[in-house]
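Figure S7 source data.
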Amino acid sequence: MSVFNLTINGESKQVDVAPDTPMLWVLRDELDLVGTKYGCGVAMCGACTIHLDGNAVRSCQLPVSAVAGKPITTIEGLSENADHPVQKAWLEIDVPQCGYCQAGQIMNAVALLNENPNPSDEEIKNAMTGNICRCGTYIRIKQAIKKVAA
Ligand code: FES
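Tokens for the predicted FE2/S2 (inorganic) cluster complex:
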């Protein structure tokens, strides 16, 4: 076990875990930030997407030892009252079905829009293609992203 000082959603946190512990489990088990979901555990589905230094990353394959000193944002830290423009668009278009993958979808969409505020359909497809949704909400996800981009 080792002590790591982390910056999560603007707050300093300290955890005492094995250095290879994935951030997904640090967030969920150590810090009780359970909005970030476990889907596949092997960086293939996107359910566990968080922001590391503003970039979308898959927390299931991100060891805690690799993030010290870099700011992390989770779905809980995106806005005060779920009122980030992307979250509002998600609600207005009623994107989720079961909802399980949606935190990861939103975190990836926010990273895309931060980098490219007006993405084309092709750019949305390319950016979001690795975030899997078993309910097939892809059309509404694209609509919500375009609503924010418009
Ligand atoms: Fe991390 Fe699937 S749980 S990508």
